[in-house]
Amino acid sequence: MKKILLITLNVTLLAMILGGIYDRARHFPIDTLNEGSNFLQSQDLFALENGNATPCSTFWLEQWRKYVMDITRYAPQLNDSYSFLGFYNIINDHPQEAIAAYERAKTGNTTYWANDYNLGVIYFRQKEYLKAIAYFEKAATSQMPLNAYAMTSSKLYADLIRQAKGMNIDYRQRLQNGNDLCLLAIKACAYALQRQDPPPEFSLSPVLF
Amino acid sequence: MRNIVLTALLFIVCSCIGVTLARHNPIENDESYSQHESIQHLSYLDILKGQVNEGNNCPLFYSAQKLFGQLAHFQLRTAWVMEQYVCEDNAQIMMRLLPILFMSAGISLCFYYFLTRYTIVAAVIAAALFLTTPITWLYWAQDRPYGLWILLTCAQTILLCEYFIFTNKSPFFWRSLTLTHWLLCLCSGFGLIQTLLAIVLIRKRWLSACVLPVMFGLFYALNAPKYHFRIPADWPALILTNISVERLALIAACACFFKRSLPLLIWLCALLGFGLLLIAAIYYQHTPGIQGFELSARYLLFLLPSSIIILNIFWQEMMRRYDKDLWVNLALIQALILVLLLGGWRTVIVLHRLL
What we know:
The complex is a heterodimer of chains A (209) and B (355).
Chain A: H1 2-39, H2 43-49, H3 57-74, H4 80-91, H5 95-108, H6 113-125, H7 129-140, H8 144-152, H9 155-162, H10 171-195
Helix pairs in contact in A: 1-3, 3-4, 4-5, 4-6, 5-6, 6-7, 6-10, 7-10, 8-10
Chain B: H1 2-24, E1 27-28, H2 29-40, H3 44-48, H4 59-71, E2 85-86, H5 89-117, H6 120-131, H7 134-138, H8 146-164, H9 171-185, H10 189-202, H11 206-223, E3 229-230, H12 236-240, H13 245-257, H14 262-285, E4 293-294, H15 303-321, H16 326-354
Parallel strand pairs in B: 3-4
Antiparallel strand pairs in B: 1-2
Helix pairs in contact in B: 1-5, 2-4, 5-6, 5-8, 6-15, 8-9, 8-10, 8-15, 9-11, 10-11, 10-14, 13-15, 14-15
């Protein structure tokens, strides 16, 4: 009787070990993403977007990159994560990698304005103004409802907004401002084309969304 | 000699892990506040007079940290105080070096104890149990008294095991217990409760190992500012973060078959009971409308080393007792693998963001 009980106990424990491994293997990606997103902050990223580096901006940019890499690993269908990788590469001055990331992001969402705008920023910085104008124009004509839908249905953008503690991020307002940004960038490109130089003290920064 | 070398190696590895954690994580506002307001801003006399403006009035840690800062010529910049996150490599490491050494010493002390009392396998299991607990990693590199508290709780639990399991009543044992209780009472407000519970269980040396240190500790605890606390919605997590369900189950299962387990089981239950009492007291005293601080699992950190040492001792004793019974051995090994595996999974998820 004792032996039967012990064998049953052992089989139960073995089943628990194997079941535990199976269960954890399934939930690990979700747990990792949740743990990661709860810890992140995005104020420093919004500061970077405005051209202001903070003492922790390199740290948080790297943490977000790690988080986004996890999204691309566990949910490769979420193309907006590549938009963030593009932003990361622009900030770190890797334009070719940034272009590749945005092109990858555009395969999932061809109409999202920020991808085109940021590609325009890269070409503007490389003084390829004609290419830049084409991207800025595309970004300016992008449809607002589609952009709003892209943003509200994205986990990454939801996390970016949620984790901007103390900042009231209104994505609709940002989309409105985005349109103005595109028009300003087009004007800057036109100026630069005429004089073969960008406007004095004028710089274009990439946007997060 | 071999035991000392192995323990020293583990201590070095643990310290390196701690420094890596410190380098990868910015300074939190709690840490910068403690460092500036309770350590740099106060004199030794102020610290000893209990004039620390923090809920945990801990003169031992603050004076040690102040001494270390002076010897290492380290000062935290005033501009960083109360910043939620501060990134500065030198400050991140210098502020946390002493707590890292305390935490590493705690893990190494357990390792050394099991190495000398049992086998190298027991020592490795003790270290593995520490390393597969997420909260160990979360507070490994923090400029707060948690590392010291864990070290002293390790020492206290080991001494209790010596007394109850190995009936060690040598003069060295009593001296060590008295010293540990003095340090514990000067380290944490809850150290008073740990000291009281231990002496109630032992019922000897009331004056030197209990009354005097508790009186000193009480002086600091009463001098500390009082804050409002509230209980998080997921209140069982306060306990289960320190002792997971599977560890509790394994301790209970082993205790059923291990005759000399009763005093240690009572000790662990008393600590758990205190934890539950604290949660209940805060729950019933909380005034609606007052926000207050959320009670954190780190306040019950004393449960972590106690449960790990007791679990390992019970497991080792069970393995000794049933060393001829293959099926019992197999069940014990499988149960331990399950405990380590579940803890390991949780730890990997936490490490994913810490490193």
